[in-house]
Design a protein that fits this description.
CATH architecture: 2-Layer Sandwich
Number of domains: 1
CATH class: Alpha Beta
Distance between the termini: 10 Å
Order of helices and strands: HEEEEEHEE
Strand content: 35-45%
Helix content: 10-25%
Structural class: alpha+beta
Number of strands: 7
CATH topology: STM4215-like
Largest sheet: 5 strands, mixed
Shape: elongated
Strand order of the largest sheet: 1-2-5-7-6
Radius of gyration: 15 Å
Number of helices: 2
Length: 112
């Protein structure tokens, strides 16, 4: 899966999506999604990265608990055969819920 394919997949939730963050003062009203690639877990063979694997963190921010939106995101991940872990936290300083989906994808994220 490429970066653009991942971006298009997440856009299927029909809420704003950005890589990593929105510029200060430019974030949309919740709900919105930010995602990033915080780590890799490449498969190596013969001293080379044989198959590229990236960890993906999809952070969905809402001002209220939104099970319907969570289900929409989870349906998208399921439809693409993505196995994910899910956590949730209330961020008091931002007054937002963060639902975090973590998973791995293989392939060259920089490819078109």
């Amino acid at each position: 899966m490429t970066h653009n394919e991942l971006m298009a997949m997440l856009a299927g939730a029909e809420i704003p999506v950005a890589y990593d963050h929105y510029a200060e003062g430019e974030s949309p009203d919740p709900p919105f999604i930010c995602f990033r690639y915080p780590a890799t877990n490449h498969f190596s063979a013969d001293g080379k990265a044989y198959y590229l694997i990236a960890q993906v963190d999809v952070e969905m921010y809402t001002d209220l608990k939104n099970p319907e939106l969570e289900a929409r995101v989870e349906d998208i991940l399921d439809a693409h055969g993505i196995f994910y872990d899910k956590t949730e936290v209330w961020i008091e300083s931002e007054r937002l819920y963060e639902v975090l989906y973590t998973f791995e994808i293989g392939g060259n994220l920089l490819a078109e």
